[in-house]
Amino acid sequence: MRIVLVGPPGAGKGTQATRLAGKLSIPHISTGDLFRANISRQTELGKLAKVSMDAGNLLPDELTIAMAKDRMQQPDAESGFLLDGFPRNVSQAEALDELLKTEAITLDAVLDLEVPEGEVIKRIAGRRICRSGSAHVFHVSYSPPKKQGVCDVCGGELYQRDDDSEETVRKRLEVYHTQTEPIIEYYKTQGLAVTIPSLGPVDEVTRRALEALEREDDGK
Ligand code: AMP
């Protein structure tokens, strides 16, 4: 399957993407994770990414599209992928459509994770992620690790993202509303967007997402 996951910061995209990709045996492709990996390796791209990310801004389209395209063309993504955080504006969505067209493939669904704005701030303030780059995500009160500061899955160090400060989150939300939300309409006109309430237990949200994907698959 080829799936796009959309939602505001704190909607649980990373958490759900890891779970869904695991269940569907497809790679989880997160442009945010790819940028963070470059920051850790201190590459030129990483230096550029850090400035935009810390300010809550998007990275330039050309650069982001090239990076996402390169990742989608890796052998493990041949029979499907789950895109998390890409596309993030209409130009990126159009570029993705072009790429899919060239490869004669199509998207199966676009899952729009919906969460009230007040909840977003609470979720992000307590969010801690694993430094190993493996996309394991915890929350100090909603899903605390067994040992404080240590990833349950791989033992990596947990840290708070620099762009998870309240000021940056407000900017990221504004960017989401102005630039990313329009892609939901874009995909609705293609009959691909499905809205999933991302509230309640994590398992429950995964179940809703899997059911929605099954419905989309049956409808084809
Ligand atoms: P995320 O981990 O998806 O929340 O992304 C973190 C940050 O990485 C964003 O706030 C942007 O600065 C940058 N980023 C991630 N994906 C994209 C994208 N598709 N286009 C532009 N910037 C992105």
What does the model show?
With 220 residues, the protein is α/β, with parallel strands linked by helices. The protein has one domain (2-116, 180-218): Rossmann fold (3-Layer(aba) Sandwich), CATH 3.40.50. It is built from 9 helices and 8 strands. It has helices spanning 13-24, 31-40, 44-55, 61-72, 90-102, 117-125, 166-180, 182-189, 202-218; strands at 2-6, 28-30, 81-84, 109-114, 127-130, 137-139, 158-159, 193-197. The strands form 2 sheets. A 5-stranded parallel beta sheet has the order 2-3-1-4-8, with helices on both faces. The chain has a 3-stranded antiparallel beta sheet with strand order 6-5-7. Helix 4 (61-72) runs parallel beside helix 5 (90-102). The longest helix is centred in the C-terminal third of the chain and has 17 residues, at 202-218. The chain is globular and about 45 Å long. The mean pLDDT is 93.
Strand content: 5-15%
Q: Rg, please?
A: 17 Å
CATH architecture: 3-Layer(aba) Sandwich
- CATH top level? Alpha Beta
Pfam family, one: ADK
Catalytic activity: AMP + ATP = 2 ADP
Region (NMP): 30-59
Keywords: ATP-binding, Cytoplasm, Kinase, Nucleotide biosynthesis, Nucleotide-binding, Transferase
